Amino acid sequence: MxxxxxxxxxxxxxQVFIAEVPELPGCMAHGDTQEAALSSIKEAIQLWxxxxxxxxxxxxxxxxxxxxxx
Length: 70
What we know:
By secondary structure, the chain is of the alpha+beta class. It is built from 1 helix and 3 strands, in the order βββα. The chain has one domain.
């Protein structure tokens, strides 16, 4: 599996942990625990890549370093 940066945080609004992959637009997952969110995001990454391949969309290469977000 490709190695993308995952941002994991608690959402007070949703009362769940949210996992996001900034390099894959719209790739997010959630879970009641950190472990559940991380497990779900691994599945979401694979689905994102499979869908991109199916539609012939480009798949970003992982940057391999910490992204800077503002």
